């Protein structure tokens, strides 16, 4: 037999239906974390990157080997904090590589990887404040080198 429902239950059910409908009708925003828009990371310079110099930077000033295993056999110590970079040029496009070098915190705010082309870094010695770790051309050179790792 049919039982009448109370106005309280009916209005609660209607509120849930309207909330679900409003959420479904609202435009979807990209997720806050892990969102990547390839168009955001155009080359930083007009000069193409030099992969030979990029390899030198990766093995030296860039400190890439501190955290990553790379196909640089003449260097004995390679880190294991970050992912292995052999084959990274097959997995990521240059804009993705550029963003991961320039400011990886855009993709993951909790990453231990530093932002190599960001000038407003936290907890930096006074003489380094307002400076990036790598220049724009050095970032492009490292991107060019990593792009060769197929």
From TrEMBL:
Ranges of residues in domain Cytochrome c: 49-150
Leader peptide range in chain numbering: 1-24
PROSITE patterns per the UniProt record, alphabetical: CYTC
InterPro entries: Cyt_c-like_dom (IPR009056), Cyt_c-like_dom_sf (IPR036909), Thiosulf_SoxX (IPR030999)
Family annotation (Pfam families): Cytochrom_C
Keyword Secreted set for record: no
Highest taxon in the source lineage: Bacteria
Protein name (Swiss-Prot/TrEMBL): Sulfur oxidation c-type cytochrome SoxX
Annotated source species: Magnetospirillum sulfuroxidans
